[in-house]
Amino acid sequence: MTDKTDEPDGPVLYHLDETCSLDDVEEGRAYQGYVNGVVDYGVFVSLNDSISGLVHESNLASPLEIGDDVKVRVEEIRDDGNLSLTPVHMHDYDEVYVGEHDGEEEEPPRTPIGELVEDDDVTVEAEILSVRQTGGPTIFTLADGTGTVDCAAFVGAGERAYPEADEGDAVRVVGEVETREGDLQLEADELEVLEGEDAQEVRDRLSAALDERAEPPELEPIVDSDRLRALYPRLREVARGIRRAVMKDRPVVVRHHADADGMASGVAVERAVFSLFDEAVDDTEAKYHKFNRMPSRAPFYEMEDVTRDLNYALKDVERHGHPKPVVLMLDNGSTEDDADAYRTLDAYDIPVYVVDHHSPDDEIEPLVEEHVNPYLEGGDYSLTSGMLCVELARLIEPSVEEDLLHVPAVAGKGDHSEAPEMEAYLELAREQGYDEEHIDDIADALDYESYQLKYDDGRHIINHILDVEENDSHDELVPHLKSLAEEAFGRQMDAARAHVDEVSLPNGATLCTLDVENFTHKFTFPGPGKTTGRVHDGKVEEHDGGVVTVGYGPDFCVIRAEGVGINIPDIVDELQEEMVGAGVHGGGHLVVGSLKFVQGRREDVLEKLYTKIAEAPLVDEHKEEVGEEPT
Ligand code: MN
Known about the structure:
Bound molecules: manganese (II) ion
Structural class: alpha/beta
Oligomer: single chain
Strand content: 15-25%
Number of domains: 4
CATH architecture of the largest domain: Alpha-Beta Complex
Strand order of the largest sheet: 18-19-20-21-23-22
CATH class of the largest domain: Alpha Beta
Low-confidence stretches: 1-5, 622-631
């Protein structure tokens, strides 16, 4: 196909498009036409919608009917504009398209899904996202990048229509747009599976449109922070992945730490995804299927949890025709303990995104789509997951920002963050009517309720405590839960306090130890981690200089340090190497973390741990080394 400046040598057949006029017609040339009228003295042949001429009966070798394609030569253009035509028989010719659409095949008219209007008769070209058989029609969910629509095809009650058409196929559907339970639905008269170039074109169009729509907005962090800005390229990548998943109807599974920071992280993302759903998913039931947020009790993605998630996802593929989900790990997920779970998901090509502020292991990098972690950009744990996830939520759906402005302060309080950003976050919260004490109470109430919820997301209760959803309960609920939490702490401290052993270490630090198995209430709030934390906070106030507190159970211990430069992930590595058969693993932050080991080696492990703590340098409150390193 060429234009007029590049004419072939041999015989040429010209095609005129609807933009051509008589001026484009030349005597002697052959044109593609069609019969538009039959009269006694010949047939009228159109070269396009507005140009036609007569083939005289004397030149017709065989009879023609209306609609027949016919190639004609223009013998004469008369002064009155009438054309005199004769049929031609051509072999081995080139074709030249004339008009605006030079060289393009004429495409069938196509309506973008985003422009469907009730009662229209349309042709839609799209990819099948999912197929589900109802008791009546077969429902194909279609996407073309401008939107998604359910398409109903009926051959018989409960009978699969177009069995050749399946998830992932590109199709052309001719049908009528109707309304079903408030949603537009396409009733298919004809559904054709596209092949080759046609199919590729549909996929390319979808992919290009999704890329454009999935692009997160251009934003600046809600507080001025270079540390946050440095993480923005990674955050944008996660936001793009989540937006793309929602637009392609992929469910989103969120796993987060079961504490105030983790809950704040999960809720921020949940609000954003739900807000995106409001454009695409109308019914509440669907939201519960397409977004699943669950707290993890362990500080990593346990095999038990990933197995459960995978099990449910695969059943949903069958029951609801859902595509496989994407997984988002929040305030969790950046350690080598997560790798087994990620490899399990990889067997099903389920992508994983991580937003965490725990000290990361390199091992997980090749296993995840994107990993947002302050440590990867020169920051540290003081920039908590909740702070990062409020930025992520804005990048997923900016309209949620106004409900979330006080959330980073809650997340920071929950994790006792001493981030330089903290003051700006507290100021932002004050502007929304939450003073510092109120923020602190929210964090404590969240921690308490997280414990009670165990494996449940507690969607609305948590929303009410965090005050991110319209409710009348927040003002009564938060002080109530806060006082329950304080009472529980009081009971735990009354029992524990008398059993804390204290020794002065050669490096000048104080080591406090507590047998949490035998001298605290078990299976109740606060658990061993928080109990140890509370003991530690008290000891820090009592002593000048560094304090390390270790709360130990039969096969685990919890570690908190202040003013002593320990590195818990490094200690775990060293113990693993030095103590064969002790089964040491665990980790966490540099100075806040936990270890697990086999019960029979507890005494050895703790002894080695205490030795390492005694060898650690003292550091000032800015976490910089002071004094001589002890030998
Ligand atoms: Mn956290």
